[in-house]
Amino acid sequence: MISAKLMKSLEKEGFSLELPLYKSRKEQIIELLKEKNNRLELALPILLQHQFEYDKITKKLDKNGKKILDRNIIIAKTIFQKESIECDHLRKIIKEEKLHYKIPKEEFTYYYDSFKDAQKKIETEEENTLKKQINIRGKLYLNKALSTIYSPGKCIIMEKIFNHEKLTNTELKYYYRSIRPLILAILNENIQEYLSIIESTKKYSK
Question: Which pLDDT score is estimated for 66?
Answer without folding.
Answer: 94
